[in-house]
Amino acid sequence: MVVNRTEGIAHMGSSAIKNEETYLLAKLMRGLGIVYLEHQARL
User: Fold this and answer.
1) Model pTM?
2) DSSP codes of every residue in 1-43
3) CA 7, CA 13: separation in Å to the nearest integer?
């Protein structure tokens, strides 16, 4: 069974981007197989 994911790369978002941009970035990162996504929502 082939699993398309990687645990060697992570993505961290920032609070300077909008919800729509965060959503698109998360979809892109999931499409690339990145498992670890983190978002800093503090101001």
Assistant:
1) 0.66
2) -----EEEEEEEE-TTS-HHHHHHHHHHHHHHTEEEEEE----
3) 17
